[in-house]
Amino acid sequence: MDYGVVLDLETTGINCETDRIIEIGLIEFGVGESGKPAIITMYSGLEDPELPLSPEVQKLTGLTDDMVRGQKIDWPLVRKILERASIVVAHNADFDRSFMQKRSEYAGLDLHWACSFKHIDWENKGYRTRALNYLAADHGFVNPFAHRALFDCATTFRIMEPYFAEMVQRSYYREVRVFATRAPFETKDKLRTNRYRWDNERRVWFKDVLEDQLPVEREFLKTDVYTGMQDMHQEESLTSC
Questions:
Q1: Distance CA 123, CA 85 (A)
Q2: Model pTM?
């Protein structure tokens, strides 16, 4: 049997350089001959950040200063669980991984991460949003305690389980940022509809895609954006999730 982990963090903010972890949730799962993940163990722990939680964090998570005061995550247990994992799954894995990599307990671990946000092709499955709680609702259930780590882990496990093989496969794909360089102004609505975002600093529309999506993206730009003119789009490889 192979092993994996679904991981979720709650933090004091979004900057891994200055903010701190206040809660961790882990769901360890096994994958046998059927290829389907099955839950083995769960762990949840709180951590005192040794500074007051902001009103925004308290409202978002439901955690209070009293709840985290004096609390300590069992980091040796967390490491033990991660050490035997072949894959770590998170929804928006770049965020969780950035905080985990700052922990000394993570040192020396060479983990492969999969992102249920980007490595499952939700759009082609008919889902218009990749937000975790909306995906839960679209799959017929509700996360009763959103932004509490273990409940978000359980939600992530439930939405990714039917698409586990796809997610694993696509987690090894290269991620590419596509720039619609010098796109005609009148195509901005088409770009926005196709989920391009505006980079105000570089003054260009861009979109991040996995390499298997590049042919479709190139065709869109050629036919819908650079119609009757030279295709001037550019591509830039990004660090894989």
A1: 29
A2: 0.90
